[in-house]
Amino acid sequence: FLTTGLYTLSTLIIPRRLISAGINYREALSLMGKFSNMALSIPLFPSIILTSICTILIPDLSESMSKGNYFSMENRIEKIIKIALILSLSTLSICAAIPNELGLMFFNRTDLGNYIRFLSFSTPFAYVSIISYAILNGIGKQKILLRNSIIVAIEDLIFLYILTGLSFINIYGYGITLIITSITSIVLNFKEIKKHCFIKIDLHEKFIYALCTILVYLILNLLNNIILIQNIYIKNILIIFSGFSLMFILINITNKKH
Protein backbone atom coordinates (compact mmCIF):
# COMPACT_ATOMS: atom_id res chain seq x y z
CA PHE A 1 0.00 0.00 0.00
CA LEU A 2 2.84 2.39 0.90
CA THR A 3 4.74 1.79 -2.35
CA THR A 4 1.52 2.19 -4.37
CA GLY A 5 0.87 5.50 -2.61
CA LEU A 6 4.41 6.72 -3.32
CA TYR A 7 4.18 5.82 -7.02
CA THR A 8 0.77 7.51 -7.25
CA LEU A 9 2.28 10.62 -5.69
CA SER A 10 5.13 10.45 -8.20
CA THR A 11 2.62 10.41 -11.06
CA LEU A 12 0.72 13.37 -9.62
CA ILE A 13 3.79 15.60 -9.21
CA ILE A 14 5.02 15.24 -12.80
CA PRO A 15 2.58 17.76 -14.39
CA ARG A 16 3.28 20.28 -11.61
CA ARG A 17 7.03 19.95 -12.04
CA LEU A 18 6.71 20.32 -15.81
CA ILE A 19 4.75 23.54 -15.25
CA SER A 20 7.55 24.79 -12.98
CA ALA A 21 9.95 24.00 -15.85
CA GLY A 22 8.07 26.55 -18.00
CA ILE A 23 5.58 24.28 -19.79
CA ASN A 24 1.89 25.24 -19.77
CA TYR A 25 -0.61 22.92 -18.06
CA ARG A 26 -2.22 21.53 -21.21
CA GLU A 27 1.16 20.83 -22.83
CA ALA A 28 2.41 19.23 -19.59
CA LEU A 29 -0.51 16.77 -19.57
CA SER A 30 0.01 16.08 -23.27
CA LEU A 31 3.73 15.39 -22.76
CA MET A 32 3.04 13.05 -19.87
CA GLY A 33 0.43 11.16 -21.88
CA LYS A 34 2.69 10.76 -24.90
CA PHE A 35 5.75 9.81 -22.86
CA SER A 36 4.41 7.53 -20.13
CA ASN A 37 1.18 6.16 -21.62
CA MET A 38 2.20 5.79 -25.27
CA ALA A 39 5.98 5.81 -25.83
CA LEU A 40 6.88 3.85 -22.68
CA SER A 41 4.36 1.09 -23.40
CA ILE A 42 6.19 0.11 -26.61
CA PRO A 43 9.67 -0.78 -25.22
CA LEU A 44 8.10 -2.30 -22.08
CA PHE A 45 5.52 -4.39 -23.94
CA PRO A 46 7.76 -7.50 -24.34
CA SER A 47 8.24 -7.54 -20.55
CA ILE A 48 4.83 -9.27 -20.45
CA ILE A 49 6.77 -12.41 -21.41
CA LEU A 50 9.02 -11.95 -18.37
CA THR A 51 6.04 -11.48 -16.08
CA SER A 52 4.61 -14.78 -17.33
CA ILE A 53 7.95 -16.53 -16.77
CA CYS A 54 8.13 -15.08 -13.25
CA THR A 55 4.85 -16.76 -12.28
CA ILE A 56 6.52 -20.11 -13.06
CA LEU A 57 9.92 -19.11 -11.64
CA ILE A 58 8.75 -18.14 -8.13
CA PRO A 59 7.34 -21.55 -7.03
CA ASP A 60 10.20 -23.33 -8.80
CA LEU A 61 12.83 -21.36 -6.84
CA SER A 62 10.90 -21.88 -3.60
CA GLU A 63 10.87 -25.65 -4.17
CA SER A 64 14.59 -25.77 -5.03
CA MET A 65 15.48 -23.76 -1.94
CA SER A 66 13.32 -25.88 0.38
CA LYS A 67 15.09 -29.00 -0.91
CA GLY A 68 18.50 -27.36 -0.58
CA ASN A 69 19.11 -27.80 -4.31
CA TYR A 70 21.18 -24.64 -4.74
CA PHE A 71 22.77 -25.78 -8.00
CA SER A 72 19.35 -26.02 -9.66
CA MET A 73 18.34 -22.66 -8.19
CA GLU A 74 21.49 -20.91 -9.44
CA ASN A 75 21.07 -22.49 -12.87
CA ARG A 76 17.46 -21.23 -13.09
CA ILE A 77 18.48 -17.72 -12.03
CA GLU A 78 21.29 -17.53 -14.61
CA LYS A 79 18.96 -18.70 -17.38
CA ILE A 80 16.21 -16.23 -16.52
CA ILE A 81 18.71 -13.35 -16.37
CA LYS A 82 19.97 -14.37 -19.81
CA ILE A 83 16.41 -14.44 -21.17
CA ALA A 84 15.76 -10.98 -19.71
CA LEU A 85 18.92 -9.61 -21.33
CA ILE A 86 18.22 -11.14 -24.75
CA LEU A 87 14.63 -9.87 -24.68
CA SER A 88 15.58 -6.38 -23.50
CA LEU A 89 18.55 -5.93 -25.85
CA SER A 90 16.46 -7.10 -28.81
CA THR A 91 13.80 -4.56 -27.82
CA LEU A 92 16.46 -1.85 -27.48
CA SER A 93 17.79 -2.58 -31.00
CA ILE A 94 14.32 -2.57 -32.54
CA CYS A 95 13.08 0.57 -30.77
CA ALA A 96 16.29 2.46 -31.52
CA ALA A 97 16.22 1.44 -35.21
CA ILE A 98 12.56 2.15 -36.06
CA PRO A 99 11.09 4.41 -33.32
CA ASN A 100 9.05 6.61 -35.67
CA GLU A 101 7.61 3.60 -37.46
CA LEU A 102 6.60 1.98 -34.16
CA GLY A 103 4.85 5.15 -33.01
CA LEU A 104 2.94 5.27 -36.28
CA MET A 105 2.10 1.57 -36.17
CA PHE A 106 0.78 1.40 -32.59
CA PHE A 107 -0.64 4.89 -32.02
CA ASN A 108 -0.85 6.43 -35.51
CA ARG A 109 1.37 9.29 -34.32
CA THR A 110 4.55 10.73 -35.80
CA ASP A 111 5.74 12.60 -32.69
CA LEU A 112 6.72 9.63 -30.48
CA GLY A 113 9.97 8.61 -32.17
CA ASN A 114 12.41 10.52 -29.96
CA TYR A 115 10.65 9.33 -26.80
CA ILE A 116 10.61 5.68 -27.90
CA ARG A 117 14.30 5.75 -28.85
CA PHE A 118 15.25 7.37 -25.54
CA LEU A 119 13.15 4.98 -23.45
CA SER A 120 14.56 1.94 -25.27
CA PHE A 121 17.82 2.44 -23.34
CA SER A 122 15.97 1.75 -20.09
CA THR A 123 14.89 -1.76 -21.14
CA PRO A 124 17.99 -3.75 -20.05
CA PHE A 125 17.79 -2.24 -16.57
CA ALA A 126 13.98 -2.38 -16.26
CA TYR A 127 13.75 -6.00 -17.45
CA VAL A 128 16.51 -7.29 -15.14
CA SER A 129 14.92 -5.31 -12.30
CA ILE A 130 11.61 -7.15 -12.87
CA ILE A 131 13.44 -10.47 -12.68
CA SER A 132 15.34 -9.49 -9.53
CA TYR A 133 12.08 -8.84 -7.65
CA ALA A 134 10.71 -12.22 -8.77
CA ILE A 135 13.87 -13.99 -7.60
CA LEU A 136 13.65 -12.33 -4.16
CA ASN A 137 10.04 -13.43 -3.92
CA GLY A 138 10.96 -16.95 -4.99
CA ILE A 139 13.63 -17.38 -2.31
CA GLY A 140 11.22 -16.19 0.37
CA LYS A 141 12.63 -12.73 1.03
CA GLN A 142 9.34 -10.81 1.00
CA LYS A 143 10.41 -8.44 3.79
CA ILE A 144 13.59 -7.51 1.91
CA LEU A 145 11.52 -7.13 -1.26
CA LEU A 146 9.16 -4.73 0.52
CA ARG A 147 12.05 -2.74 2.01
CA ASN A 148 13.78 -2.42 -1.37
CA SER A 149 10.50 -1.49 -3.08
CA ILE A 150 9.95 1.33 -0.58
CA ILE A 151 13.53 2.60 -1.02
CA VAL A 152 13.15 2.59 -4.81
CA ALA A 153 9.72 4.27 -4.63
CA ILE A 154 11.14 7.08 -2.46
CA GLU A 155 14.10 7.46 -4.83
CA ASP A 156 11.67 7.56 -7.76
CA LEU A 157 9.74 10.39 -6.10
CA ILE A 158 12.89 12.41 -5.35
CA PHE A 159 14.43 12.10 -8.82
CA LEU A 160 11.15 12.79 -10.59
CA TYR A 161 10.71 15.92 -8.51
CA ILE A 162 14.23 17.16 -9.29
CA LEU A 163 14.67 16.13 -12.93
CA THR A 164 11.24 16.90 -14.41
CA GLY A 165 11.45 20.38 -12.90
CA LEU A 166 14.58 21.22 -14.93
CA SER A 167 13.68 23.02 -18.15
CA PHE A 168 16.45 21.39 -20.22
CA ILE A 169 15.37 17.88 -19.13
CA ASN A 170 11.59 18.18 -18.41
CA ILE A 171 9.69 15.00 -19.40
CA TYR A 172 12.92 13.10 -20.16
CA GLY A 173 13.45 13.15 -16.40
CA TYR A 174 10.81 10.40 -16.27
CA GLY A 175 12.99 8.12 -18.41
CA ILE A 176 16.21 9.03 -16.58
CA THR A 177 14.47 8.27 -13.27
CA LEU A 178 13.33 4.89 -14.61
CA ILE A 179 16.93 3.98 -15.47
CA ILE A 180 18.29 5.17 -12.10
CA THR A 181 15.63 3.40 -10.02
CA SER A 182 15.97 0.20 -12.05
CA ILE A 183 19.73 0.16 -11.43
CA THR A 184 19.16 0.80 -7.72
CA SER A 185 16.68 -2.08 -7.46
CA ILE A 186 19.09 -4.40 -9.31
CA VAL A 187 21.94 -3.53 -6.93
CA LEU A 188 19.80 -3.85 -3.78
CA ASN A 189 18.04 -7.05 -4.85
CA PHE A 190 21.10 -8.88 -6.12
CA LYS A 191 23.08 -7.89 -3.04
CA GLU A 192 20.54 -9.91 -1.05
CA ILE A 193 20.24 -12.72 -3.62
CA LYS A 194 24.02 -13.29 -3.61
CA LYS A 195 23.85 -14.02 0.13
CA HIS A 196 21.86 -17.17 -0.65
CA CYS A 197 23.24 -18.36 -3.97
CA PHE A 198 26.26 -17.83 -6.20
CA ILE A 199 25.68 -15.74 -9.32
CA LYS A 200 28.53 -15.43 -11.76
CA ILE A 201 28.81 -12.05 -13.48
CA ASP A 202 30.83 -12.47 -16.67
CA LEU A 203 31.84 -8.99 -17.90
CA HIS A 204 33.33 -10.42 -21.09
CA GLU A 205 29.98 -12.04 -21.89
CA LYS A 206 28.09 -8.80 -21.21
CA PHE A 207 30.50 -6.91 -23.51
CA ILE A 208 29.74 -9.42 -26.28
CA TYR A 209 26.01 -8.86 -25.66
CA ALA A 210 26.57 -5.11 -26.11
CA LEU A 211 28.40 -5.69 -29.41
CA CYS A 212 25.58 -7.98 -30.59
CA THR A 213 23.08 -5.24 -29.77
CA ILE A 214 24.99 -2.69 -31.87
CA LEU A 215 25.28 -5.16 -34.76
CA VAL A 216 21.55 -5.99 -34.69
CA TYR A 217 20.71 -2.27 -34.56
CA LEU A 218 22.85 -1.61 -37.67
CA ILE A 219 21.30 -4.56 -39.54
CA LEU A 220 17.76 -3.41 -38.67
CA ASN A 221 18.58 0.11 -39.84
CA LEU A 222 19.76 -1.35 -43.13
CA LEU A 223 16.65 -3.52 -43.44
CA ASN A 224 14.43 -0.51 -42.79
CA ASN A 225 16.05 1.26 -45.74
CA ILE A 226 16.11 -1.62 -48.21
CA ILE A 227 12.72 -3.24 -47.55
CA LEU A 228 10.42 -1.57 -50.06
CA ILE A 229 7.10 -2.89 -48.74
CA GLN A 230 4.66 0.02 -48.51
CA ASN A 231 2.45 -1.54 -45.83
CA ILE A 232 3.98 -0.26 -42.56
CA TYR A 233 2.47 -3.09 -40.50
CA ILE A 234 4.00 -5.87 -42.60
CA LYS A 235 7.33 -4.03 -42.83
CA ASN A 236 7.52 -3.42 -39.08
CA ILE A 237 6.54 -7.00 -38.22
CA LEU A 238 9.33 -8.28 -40.48
CA ILE A 239 11.87 -5.97 -38.83
CA ILE A 240 10.67 -6.83 -35.31
CA PHE A 241 10.84 -10.57 -36.05
CA SER A 242 14.31 -10.11 -37.56
CA GLY A 243 15.47 -8.18 -34.49
CA PHE A 244 14.49 -10.85 -31.97
CA SER A 245 15.70 -13.70 -34.20
CA LEU A 246 19.08 -12.11 -34.95
CA MET A 247 19.76 -11.33 -31.29
CA PHE A 248 18.85 -14.86 -30.22
CA ILE A 249 21.02 -16.43 -32.94
CA LEU A 250 24.04 -14.15 -32.35
CA ILE A 251 24.05 -14.59 -28.58
CA ASN A 252 23.67 -18.36 -28.89
CA ILE A 253 26.58 -18.51 -31.35
CA THR A 254 28.82 -16.39 -29.10
CA ASN A 255 27.83 -18.43 -26.01
CA LYS A 256 28.84 -21.67 -27.73
CA LYS A 257 32.21 -20.21 -28.73
CA HIS A 258 32.67 -18.66 -25.29
From TrEMBL:
The terms describing its cellular component in GO are: plasma membrane
Which keywords are on file for this protein?
Membrane, Transmembrane, Transmembrane helix, Transport
Q: InterPro entries this protein is in?
A: MATE_MdtK (IPR050222)
Transmembrane residue ranges? 38-59, 80-99, 115-136, 145-163, 169-188, 208-227, 233-253
Leader sequence residues? none
Report the family membership: Belongs to the multi antimicrobial extrusion (MATE) (TC 2.A.66.1) family.
Q: What is this protein called?
A: Multidrug-efflux transporter
Could you tell me which species this protein originates from? Clostridium botulinum CFSAN001627
Classification of source organism: Bacteria, Bacillati, Bacillota, Clostridia, Eubacteriales
